[in-house]
Amino acid sequence: MAPTHRVAVLAVGGVYPFELGIPSRVFEAADGLYEVFTCSVDGRPVRTNSDFSITVEHGPEALRTADTVVIPPFTTTAVPPEVPQTAVQTLASVTPGTRLISICTGAFVLAAAGLLDGRPATTHWMVADLFRARFPRVALDPDALFIDDGDILTSAGAASGLDVCLHIIRKDHGSEVANQVARMCVAPPWRDGGQAQFIQHPVPEATASGTAAARQWALENLHEPMTLMDLAEHSHMSLRTLVRRFTEEVGMSPGRWLIQQRVDRARHLLETTNLPVDEIAGQVGFAGSTSLREHLHAAIGVSPLAYRRTFRGTLSSTH
What we know:
single chain, DNA-binding transcription factor activity, alpha/beta, six-stranded mixed β-sheet, Rossmann fold, 10 strands, 319 residues
């Protein structure tokens, strides 16, 4: 068995209590694979953005023994005009090669330390303009839920902290362990899409004359050839009306949605079975393995075999 992976969580003044607790809640649900401890820049109590402070057991010296360091977000009123310099200076205690993770505005600390220069990163969409103006050398992607750039991972707000922690477990120990942790936390093991889906826009209420029934039929028959006219017939609409109503209700065209569902189903089969790629392609309705490879690469940038190697777990295969 590999030694327990040590995760240090650095609490900065104005920290959000919910996000501060995410690493402990997620990693400690992984059946002893991780040890999580919380520290501050000076070992003293830390004022949160709520009406209470927290007492921590560790100071910055604890960072030297960490395998992973997580920087949770702090209130945006602490971002301008300066990132907390004590937090930036504290990162000097981190051993080179240690994995670094930020949640939401925690990315400001990594960027202020120069650790994100020339690298891709994300943060909460509401502070993306401020971040880009402050750190123009960072390749900011304000739509991503999280970005894995090897030894540094950045994530957006709140729930994306769950996403990135589950991603780490999946990367370290495979899909089965990550899925079990997600069940313990009553959270989805993987969320598709980006932050754009959380920016508020009008969505019509579902009605009996909507496209929900057609979508359910499509999900139950993904393995079959399917056209937009088939969806229109199951919705009892003309093709033109289907496209308009579907886009209003779902936020994307029916053709794009159908491809997304097939890719999602293929990803699940790649993670949980040993089925050949050709067979998986057939089960999810793609014409063949070439079509599956093209669509999967367009969606997430990797081949089916690379995805399977990554999300079946690299560490778990050696235990």
